[in-house]
Each structure stands twice: as structure tokens, then as C-alpha cells.
DNA sequence: TTCATTTTTTACCAATTCGCATAAAAAGAT
DNA sequence: ATCTTTTTATGCGAATTGGTAAAAAATGAA
């Protein structure tokens, strides 16, 4: 089933490209400080077109947040598969995250940390949907780390230890995001990440 | 030298009380989403009075941020002096911070995390003064942890190890702030904090 | 060509934003 | 009592906000 040729005036924009542009604006400014005019300028569209395609400002923001979370998940999962063993894989993931946070990946050129952590936080007390979205993002990171650790250290850690270690790694990662947004350099952050992983999940030959 | 009796109409507000009220508004909403009308309502003053006393919105915000950092510093330092040894003192400090982040101290009733970390971040890319303020806050925490560790573990750690461990603790603390703002409970956060300290600066009888 | 459909564009709206100018009020000083 | 000083209160204003109505444009279908 191909899509039938579309009726009406054709769109002058690509939805994916536009959403990426919208993402950049929110990434830099956060939710509250971003205006639809800024988004309109960044995308080359005007407000009514944006509204027709993506809904309200809040819709766009939540859309972009979940888009970001998905991309980040894929990107980090892939980075974690280039090595073996819990400790090396976790290091690889944190280092990849730092590259993302400091604008070294094709997701963004700007060193603005984690889009979700940096911008959702601030809005969280005023809007329960944002608060929920933040909770979901955090839980997803916890689960991701936990499943990697569980998989790589079969039996040698209790489920309790696994979950705690996973949360420690996520805590570290969020702290790194903040420092990235504060302007800290990638290399400093990566050293911090590696030494942190060594304390949380020390290297062992077994896993 | 006493202050001479003041000329002119007396102020109807106490500067300290008002600044605390201003702090609550920024704490909840962040900088961008806070309006002067909201501040006016929270303080019972009107905008011209606020402006005359505290300057612009940005002035007020930076004022409140440094006020917060000072108070936090005093509060945590005191909490860290109720015990002895690096590991117990660090735990006491993190636990006190969590109480603050979750609205269990007299600084605020609201569980909005760390005012500086939560709200400065978002604004950081758009304003170099905010970015600088964030850097200062982070560095201050790093230094605080480092000096405690240095003092409690005389000689048994290299300066490099001390600074790295201090930064790990600050990273964890910032991660905890985010989770507090996301609505996580104090007890869960405190368990995470304690187990993290045990990994970063394990308990030893010597210090 | 004419019509139906979809998007773009222009223009507008009501509400809010920060800041300030000006006037009224409340105190001490003379 | 009158003047000076300081603060409070009223109200304006220019700009920006998110959102939408209505018209114009661009395409396929008939």
C-alpha cells in the first residue's frame, strides 16, 4: 500500500527536519523562554503552519522530548555494544553521553547537556505532565543501566545491588549533564565519568 | 554608630522576609517563567516598590541565588559537624541536602530540589552571567567536599584522589536534586546517597 | 476548465510582559 | 505648620506572548 498522491497544496517542509530544528531551540532556551516566533524563525515556517502540523507549544515540546529520549536511547545502546564487560561498556556509554552533551554528535553542535534533564526539571513543579515526563526519562535511564549490569554480571550481584548501582550511574550522568551545560570540557567530564564507573562497577575479569 | 533615624516614609516590608518570598517564587517557576506580577503578589508589594528595592528581575534572581548558596553552605557545613570521620560526615551532609531538596527544612516547604542547580541550568546558554553563576555554585560544592575529605583523611589520599572524589559527590548530589524535583521521596534519595558515599569514600576506622 | 483539498500567508486578537513616569502618602527636619 | 525625603500606589506604554480567523496559493481530481 503506497500512500496515495496527496491532495492539496504540498508542504514546503520535511517533518523530521523541522522537528530537529524545533529541538535545537528548546534545547538552548528551555520551554518557558522559547517563543513560537523563535521556533518559526528557526524552522522557516510561520506560526499557523507550525500549529497545524505539530499542535501547541506544549505539544511540540513534549513531542521533541520523547523524540530526544528515543534517539538518545538508540545512540547510547549502540555505543555500549562496541565493547564487552560491565565496566568497559558502562564507560563507553557514559563517554558517548558526554559527547552528546557537549555537542560532539550529529544530534546537536551545542554543549547544552541533556535536553530532557536540563529543561524538563525547571518546568516540573508547574505542570504535572512535565513532571511525569521527567520521571519517565529518569526511570528509563535507571532501567537501561540496570539491564546492562544484570546482563553482564550474571549472578554475581543481587537484584538490589544492581538497581542501586544503576541509579548511581544515572545520578552521575545527570550531574555530568549539568556540568556540560555549565561549560565544562568533554575531557574533564570523561575523566570524571571513568573514575566514577570504576567506583560503582569496578572492573573484573569475570564480567 | 547607630543608623540615624530614617527620613521619609518608612518601608512596609522587611527586606529579608521579602527576599525569602521572592526566593520561593523563583524556586518553583525558574527564572523565565516567573513574572514580576507573581513576585509582587507573593510579597504583597507592587512592582515599582520591588524595582526600587531590589532592581530588575535579573538582579532579584541573582540576588536570591547567592543568598540561597550562602544559606545552603552554612546549613550543610553545620550538618557535617555533628559527626566525625569522612564517611559519616559526608553522609550527614548529603542527607541534610536531601532534607533541603525535599522541603523538610525551614528554607522551604516545597520539594523543588536545589534552587541553583534546578533553575540556573536552563538559563545558562542564553546568559553568560547565569552561566558564570552556575559555574561558581558548582565549584563551591566541589571545594566544600574536597576540603572536608582533605581534612578528614590526612595524607591517606592524594590531592588528585581528593578532588575527584569531591566531584563525584557533587555529581551525585546534583543528580539527587533532579530526582527530588521529579518527586522522588526523601527516604529513597537518602538510601541512594548513603550507598553512594560508601562507594566513593568507604568507611574506615582511621578517619 | 472547474472544483475540492490542503497548506501557506497575512492579519488580528486578547492577555501578559517588564519597566517607568507620575502622583499620593508617610515620616523626620526646620 | 511647612519643607524635604523616602516609599507606596496608580496607571500607562511599547513590546511580546500563544493562538486563530480568514484569505490566498498550490496541488490533484473530475
From TrEMBL, chains A, B:
Recall the GO molecular function terms of this protein's record: DNA binding
Q: Mind listing the UniProt keywords for this protein, alphabetically?
A: DNA-binding, Transcription, Transcription regulation
* Pfam family, any one: TetR_N
List the stretches of this chain annotated as a DNA-binding region.
35-54
Gene3D superfamilies documented for this protein: Homeodomain-like, Tetracycline Repressor, domain 2
Domain annotation HTH tetR-type: ranges? 12-72
Q: Does the keyword DNA-binding apply?
A: yes
Judging by the UniProt lineage, the source's domain of life is: Bacteria
- Name of the protein this chain belongs to: Copper outer membrane regulator
Q: Which organism is it from?
A: Roseibium album
Amino acid at each position: 500500500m503506497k500512500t496515495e498522491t496527496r491532495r492539496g497544496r504540498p508542504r514546503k517542509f520535511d517533518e523530521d527536519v523541522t522537528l530537529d530544528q524545533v529541538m535545537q531551540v528548546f534545547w538552548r532556551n528551555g520551554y518557558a523562554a522559547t517563543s513560537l516566533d523563535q521556533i518559526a524563525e528557526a524552522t522557516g515556517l510561520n506560526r499557523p503552519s507550525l500549529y497545524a502540523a505539530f499542535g501547541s507549544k506544549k505539544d511540540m515540546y513534549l513531542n521533541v522530548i520523547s523524540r530526544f529520549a528515543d534517539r538518545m536511547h538508540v545512540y547510547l545502546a549502540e555505543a555500549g555494544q562496541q565493547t564487552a564487560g560491565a565496566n568497559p561498556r558502562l564507560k563507553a556509554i557514559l563517554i558517548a553521553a558526554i559527547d552528546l552533551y557537549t555537542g560532539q554528535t550529529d544530534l546537536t553542535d551545542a554543549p547544552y547537556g541533556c535536553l530532557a534533564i536540563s529543561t524538563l526539571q525547571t518546568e516540573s513543579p508547574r505542570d504535572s505532565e512535565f513532571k511525569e515526563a521527567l520521571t519517565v526519562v529518569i526511570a528509563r535511564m535507571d532501567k537501561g543501566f540496570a539491564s546492562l549490569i544484570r546482563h553482564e554480571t550474571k549472578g554475581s550481584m543481587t537484584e538490589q545491588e544492581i538497581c542501586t548501582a544503576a541509579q548511581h550511574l544515572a545520578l552521575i550522568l545527570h550531574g555530568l549533564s549539568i556540568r556540560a551545560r555549565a561549560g565544562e570540557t568533554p575531557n574533564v567530564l570523561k575523566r570524571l565519568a571513568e573514575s566514577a564507573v570504576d567506583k560503582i562497577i569496578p572492573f573484573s575479569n569475570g564480567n
